[in-house]
Amino acid sequence: MQQYNRREFIAAASLVAATPIINDKMTHNSNASQLVHHVFFWLKNPGSETDRKQLIEGLKTLKAIKEVKQLLIGTPASTEKREVVDNSFDVSELMYFDNVEGQNAYQIHPVHKAFVDKHSHLWEKVIVYDMQVI
Amino acid sequence: MQQYNRREFIAAASLVAATPIINDKMTHNSNASQLVHHVFFWLKNPGSETDRKQLIEGLKTLKAIKEVKQLLIGTPASTEKREVVDNSFDVSELMYFDNVEGQNAYQIHPVHKAFVDKHSHLWEKVIVYDMQVI
């Protein structure tokens, strides 16, 4: 049986701890430094189907940005209205970046800036969550 | 050239409008009724690495639930601290379900209930966003 000294054992244990969680159910490309950017929009006129559609059309333009690896657009789901569920938003975008640098490049990309210039009059509130996948 | 009457045209146009947005950059399985369930946790003891790890280990158990099609676990990313960015959460889980029924089944699944029973003492606040992909 191979023997390890304490230092070797600690080094090996650290490696295991640093291994990214790869869920075997995941079918999309995953990597250790993957960043999820989830944005929720509350419209100034939440009853306006026109405004909602205009925002959604604007969001679709963002997939032209090469750093945006995946883009999903959505609206509140009809799940149970539990106390912890915030279903008050109107539109949501969920994006994947390879890393923080990709997200930084996206923020200053002309297509993103044009989207904000053209559509920011539509929303009253925005909340952004940036999640580093571990 | 094939001719269409007004009724046929409207029917065809409706079909196009109902087609889900499939981003060609998306590599994970996508379908029209896909539901994204994004949960943010604020720990009672945000400075406790033990509590954070315990919550993350608990979240990993949730992938055993067959309705959970994908699971990502994360912590706040080191993106720029803009006014709209909420990076105050401690841990986040991002799940994909095929539809609302899948999410409902998950809520009452014994593995999910066991997770809540064992870990809810760790968190002070939870916010859930359920997004219907369009």
Give the largest chain-chain interface (CB within 8 Å): A-B, 52 and 52 residues
Q: Bin the helical content of chain A.
A: 25-40%
Q: Residue-averaged pLDDT of chain A, rounded?
A: 84
Percentage of residues in strands of chain A: 25-35%
- From the structure provided, what is the oligomeric state, counting identical versus distinct chains? homodimer
Give unreliable regions of chain A as ranges: 9-29
SSE order of chain A in H/E notation?
HEHEEHHE
The general outline of chain A is globular
The CA-CA distance between the termini of chain A, in Å, is: 33 Å
- What's the helix count of chain A? 4
Features of this protein?
homodimer; 134 residues; alpha+beta; four-stranded antiparallel beta sheet; 4 helices
Description:
2 copies of one chain form a homodimer. The first copy, chain A, has 134 residues and is α+β, with helices and mostly antiparallel strands. Helices cover 33% and strands 25% of the residues of chain A. Chain A contains 4 helices and 4 strands, in the order αβαββααβ. Chain A has helices at residues 6-18, 49-61, 100-107, 110-119; strands spanning 35-43, 70-76, 91-97, 123-133. In chain A, strands 2-3-1-4 form a 4-stranded antiparallel sheet. Chain A is globular. The interface between A and B is large, with 52 and 52 residues. β2 of chain A pairs antiparallel with β4 of chain B, so a sheet runs across the interface.
